[in-house]
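Homework-ish question, so no full write-ups if that breaks the rules, but can someone show me the predicted structure for this set?
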Amino acid sequence: MASVTTRPPPWRDVRVLRVLLQLLFALGVVAVVTWLFGNLVTNLDQIGLSTDFDFLDQPAGFQILGSDFRASQTVRDAFVVGITNTISVAGIGIVLATLLGVLVGVLSLSSNWLVRKAATIYVETLRNLPPLIVIVFVFSAVILQLPRIQEASEWFGLVIVSNRTIGLTAPAFEGDSAGTYALLLGLGVVAAIAVAVWRTRVHRATGAPHRRVLWGGGVLLVVAVVGWFALGGPLVLDRPQIVGVQIEDGWAMNANYAALLIALVIYTATYIAEIVRGSIQAVDHGQTEAADALALSSFQRLRFVVLPQAFRIAVPPLANQYLNLTKNSSLALAIGFFELTQTTLTIIGNGNPAPQSIAILMAGYLVLSLSIALVTNLVNRRLQLVAR
Amino acid sequence: MNQRRWRWVALFAVLSLVLGACGSDDSNDAADDDDDGDTEETVELVQDGSRLDGIIDEGTFVCGVNDAVPGFGFTDEDGNFSGFDIDFCRVIAAAVLGDAEAVEYRPLAAADRFTALQSGEIDVLSRNTTWTATRDGSEGAAFTVPTFYDGQGMMVRTGEYESIDDMGGTSICVLSGTTTELNLASRFNAAGLEYEPLSFEDNDLLRESFISGQCDGWTSDKSQLAAVRSAYPEGDGGPEALTILDETFSKEPLGPAVADGDPAWYDAVNWAIIATIQAEEFGITSENIDDFLDSENPEILRFLGQAAGEDDAVLDPGLGLPADFAYQVVSQVGNYAEIYERNVGPDTALGLERGLNALYTDGGILYPPPYR
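A: Not a homework solution, just the prediction itself:
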C-alpha cells in the first residue's frame, strides 16, 4: 500500500504559517517605527522646529575643558571632541580595569588569609554601589580634597598634584632629529618582533629555550639607546610645571577626567575580579594537580596552566564589562567632564534640536559598543579550544 | 563556518558605512547647504483648540521652574516652592483660573527646559530663562515681557582678582547649557584671554567645586551670584569671602516662555504678567486694591474689570481672560513691586536694588503697554 502524503491547506500548513507569522511581525515592527517617526516629524514641524541636521554647521559657542576646542568651531567638531574623550576614558579605563581586576581576582584566591580577605572586602564593597555614587564620591571626596593649585604638592619634580589638574611627567620628542628617532624606534619594534619570531622558530626546531621576550627587548633597547646618543638626545622627559594657576607641559590630566577614570576603573575592576576568580575556579582541579606533578612553581602553574585556560572562559563576560565601562562613562555629566553625553546635552541646552542630537549620541555609543564587541569576539574566536 | 564569516563581513560593512557616513559629512557641507531650498516647508499652524481652553477645563497648569536658586525658584524645608519666578507662575494661575495656588510645579535642569516646553510637558517655563534669538527661533519658545532684567557677572574669592581682564588662564565654573556658558566664551575670546571652563549640570556640585578652589571664578547672572553669595557657608568665610566683580558683561532679560504656535495662550500669559507692572504704575497693591474698586479713574476701573462711566460697560480686550483677572492677580499675589521686594529686594538675603527693574517713571525700563 502506497502512502499518500497530501499537503494540508495553506492556512493549516505549519511551514506557511511560520513564514507568515514572521512576516506579519516584521510588518508590525516597521509600521510602529514608521508611525512613531512620522509622529515626531509632524509634531516638530507643527511647532516650527527643524528636523534636519543643518545645525551641525552652526558655531557651538562654548568651550570644552581640557581641549583646544574654540567657541567658534562647529557643533560637529564639538561632537567629535565628545566622542574622542569618551574613547579616551573607555580605552585607558578598559586597560587599567583589566590589570587591576586580574590582580584582585588572583589575590582573592590567595592562600594568605589577609590578602584574600582584603581582596574580598574591596570587591564586595564597591561592587554593591551604583556607579554614579562611586563617581561623585571619588570626585568630591578624593579629587576635590587634593591641594589647591596655589598650594599644589610636587613630588620629586615629576608629578604635580592639585585638585584642578594632575601633572605627570611624560616622554616627549624634542629637537630636529625627533622625527628620525621616532622612525628609528618604529624600525626597532619591527626588528624586535622579527627576532622574537626567529627565536620561536629556533625553539620549535631544536628545543632550545626561546627567550624571545629577552631577545626582542634587548634588540629594541640597543636600538633605542644607540639611536638616542647618536642623534643627540631627541627624547626628553617633559616635566609638568605651574604657569599662573594652571599646570602646563608633561601630561596634564584634568582632575575631572582623573575622577571619572579612577571611579570607572575601581568600579569595573570589581566585576572583572569576580569573573577572573570564577574562571580560575572553573579550571579543572586536575590541571593544577598535573602542574604540581610536573614540579612547576606556583607562578609557572598560574602562568602556563591555569590562566590560559581561565581566560578562555573569562573573555565573553569580560566583553560585557568593557561595554558597561564604556556606557557608564556617560555618568560623567554629573561631574562636568565633556564626554559624549555631557557634550550632547550641552549642545542641546544651547539651542540645538534635541531629537537629532540624541540620535547622534545613540549612534555614537552604538558604534563604540559594536566595535568593542567585534574586537572581543575576534579574541574569543582565537582563544577558543581548537579541536584537533 | 563560512556563513559565520559572512556575518562578520556584513557587520563590518555596516560599521564602515556608519563610520564612512560620519567622516564624509565634512566634505559634503556645500552640498548640504544647497538642499536648503527643498527643506523649507510651509508650517501649518493648527488652530483646533488653544492650550488655554484645555487649562481652563482642567483647572490647573504645569509650570516648569528652578528649585535650586534662592530668591528666584527653590524649595523650602517643607517642600513648598517659592521665589520670584514661582510667584509669576502664581500670577498666571490667578489670572487664568482665578486661583493662585492652581499650579503644578515641575523642577527642571537648565539643559532640559526647552525640551520640556517643546514636548508640551510643561505649559509655561518660568525658570530664570534668558530671552535670545535662538531660543525664540530654533527652540520654538515664545517669550513674554521680561520679568527681570539681569546681566552676567563674575564672582571670585575676595582679593584674588580685581577685574575680568586679570583673569587670563584661570579656571571658571559655569552651569552647562546656559547662555552664561556662551557669554563667558564671548567675553574671554573678545579680550583674547584663555580660560578653562568647568561646566556642571547643577548648582550643588558646582558650589562644591568652587568652594574647594577647583575654579577661580564663578560666572552666572548677577542676581544668581548674589543669591549664592548670600548663602555661602560661614565655615568657608561667609558672604564676605566672596566678591562679585563690578563688570556686567551681558544682557540677560529673564522672563517666562510658552511654546510657539499658540497665540491665545501666549497673550493670556503675557498680559497676566503685564498686569503686575500696570498695577504698580497705578499704585495698586494687594493691601489697598479694594479701595480702588470705586475709583474715580476710568483707566483703573477698566483695568480692574469694573464697569466704568455711566453706561456700565466692561472692557473685554479679547485675551480670553476673565474681566477681573487683574484684580485676582494683584489681590492674590501682589503687584510687581510686592513680588520683587518679597523675594529678591533689598530687605531679603539677596538684597538686590531695583535698578533696571524699576518702572520707567523711576528710572528703570519697566513700561507696561496700555490696557485698553
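Now go work out the reasoning yourself. Hint: The CA atoms of residues 63 and 89 of chain B lie 6 Å apart.
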